[in-house]
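Morning run. Coffee first, then this:
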Amino acid sequence: MSIENIENIKAEFQKYMESKGFPVDQVVADDKIHWFHVEGDADGTQNGAYILHADGVVPNGRFGTLEGSGSFNGFNHKWSAKPEKEMTTEELKEYTRQQKEDKQRCKEEKKKRQDEDGKLAVEVWNKGDRDPNRVSQHPYLLAMGIQSHDARISAMEDYYKERLMYPMKNIFDEIRNLLFIDSNGEMQTLKDGEVDGLFCYMAGNPGSLECDICVDIATGASICEATGHNVIVTLDKDNMPKVAQAIKDRMKATPDASKRVCFRICTDGDVNVDVPREAEEAAEILECRIACPVFSLVHYDEFKAKHGGKEPTNFHHLYQIAGPEYVRWRVEATIPPKGAERSRKPIVFTGSDFLAQNTPQKEYVLEPVMPFPGLIMIFADRGIGKTYLMIYIVIAIASGGTILRWNAPEARKVFYIDGEMPAGEMQTRMREADATELYLDWEDNFRIFNLEQQASNDYYVPNLATKEGQDYFAENIEWADVIVIDSISTMMRFKDSNNEDEWKPVQDWLIKLRALGKTVVLLHHTNKSGGSRGTSAREDVMDIVIKLERPVDYTEDQGARFNVRLTKARGVYGEQAEPFEAWLKDGCWEISDVKKLLSEKEQMAQEIWNMRASGMTQQDIAQKLGIAQSTVSKLGKKFPEYSPEAEAIANV
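And here it is:
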C-alpha cells in the first residue's frame, strides 16, 4: 500500500476517534497497541488505547478505554475503511477475527501494566516513611484537621516523594495501587495502576463490627474518628457499587464472618435531596442502609461564612462545624435505599437465640412512668395544667429530683419544644417551679425553643410532621436525652388529624428516636369524648399514656388541680399504676387519692343517708327527692357504705 494511502487511512481513523471523544495528537499504523491520555482522567495516566491495521484484507482499527476510565467502558469502538455491509464474506470473517483479537490484546496489555504497578505499589509503600510524628504534620492532614490513619510519606524520588500516601487494596487485602496526596490536597494514583473495586481502609475501635463506606479520605477519617467504626473509602463515587459488589462476592465465600458485620453507605449531600444513584446502588447490593449528612440553617450559614461562600456537602464538613458527637448521631440515623422494599429480609431468631441477646436493663428518666429510652404522651383538656406539670417534670429530670410520686434517678439533658406558651408566661412558670425544686443549672441541662422568640427567623414554624421540620431540630435533638414536644396540635400539622396514614411518618421518626436512645414526651389535647384528639393510632407506639382530668368536685378557683391517670402503662403495675390527685398549692404539689366518681344512683343513695342522719323520715325523703318510698328503702339497702356508721368505720 502506498504511503499516501496509509496517511489517508491514519487521518480517517484519527478523525473517527475524535468524533467519539478520543482526540490524539497522532496515529501510528503498525499493528501495535498504543496508549494515550483520556480527557477527564487523572493527569499522567494513559488509560486509552488504539490499534490500527493499515494492511490486510480491509484496513481497520479499534480503540477505547478499560472499564472505569473516562466516560466510556471497554474497547468497544471499531473502525474500518469499508462499511461491514459492503464487505465480502471473506473480508467480514477476517475483519471480525482481527477485531476480537485486538480487544483481547488490549485487555491483556492493561492487565500486565496493572500487575506491574501493583508490585511497584507494594515496593513504594514498604519504603515509605511511617514515623507517626512526621506523618501527622503533613500539610494535608493539618489543613483537614484529621488523623493520619496509618498513612505514610513517600520516600522514593520518582514516585511522588514527600506526598502522603494510602494503600489501595482489593477485597483480599492485597495492595494494588497507591493514593498520593500533596500539600494542596491534590490526589493521584500510579498512572497504570488498577482502580476498579479498590479502596483505602481505616480501622476503627478494636472489635468494632460496624463498617461505613464513603468516597473521600477526609470524610472517611472524620467518620472513623467520630464513631469508632471501620471505614472503607472508595475514592470515586462510580467505584462505590464496584466495591460493594466485591464485598458481597467475598461475603458469599465467608458467610459466617460477614453475617456479623453491619455495613452502612455514607453519602454526600442532603437527605432531603435525592441520594446519589451510586450510593443507592451500593446500598442495594449490600442490603444495607444509607447515612446522609444533615445541615441545619446554623451549620449551613456558619460553614459558608468560614469557607468563602462554599456550601457544605459531606460528613467532613459536618465534622468541622458540628463536632464528632453530631456526626456520630447522623451516621447512625440511616435511611433505607429506594430498593429496600425489594431486598429487605426480616431478622428472625430462635427462642433460645433471642433470649441470649444482650439487651440493656430498663432505665428511666422518671421512674416508673418515663422509661429511657421511651415514648410518652400526656393529654388533657385545654387549661387543665399540662404545661405547668411538664415544667416541674422537666426540672426534676434535668436536676435528678422528684415530682409527684415519681423520681428521676439521675440528671439528664432536656430539649423543650414549646409551641404554645407566650415567652413571658413561660419564663414566669419556669422561675416559680425552679424556686421550689432542686436548683437546676439551666445552662447545662436545659434548652428551649419558644415560638414567640423566633423573630430573627421571621417566626418560622417548623412542622414536625415533615422530614424538613424534624431535621430543623436535629442538632438539639442529638444533644438531648429527653425531648418534650408541646404540643402535637401546634408543632405537627396534618391535613386530617384522624388520618392514620398521615401519622405514620411521625410514628416512624419517633420509633427511630427511641432506637437512638431518646425519650420523647408529647403533650396533646382531648377530643369531645374525653380521649386523645385525632387518630387512636398515636397511642399504639407509646410506652406510657397519661391523662389529666378534673376531679368531680373541682372549682375554678383551685387552679392546677387534676387527677393523674395512666390510660396505658407498659411495664407499670399495682399501686404504681393507680390514679391519684395532684394539686399545686403555693408552688408545692399535694398528692391524695382520687375522689370516687359516683353514679347517679350512688349520688342519690348518699343524699338519702345524709337526710336520714338529719332526722328526716322515709316519707319526707321520698317527697323531697320526688321518688317512691320503696325506692328510698331499696337505695339505702343497696348502698349501705354511705351510711353514717359505715363512714365512721372507714375514718377510724
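The longest strand covers residues 561-569. Good start to the day.
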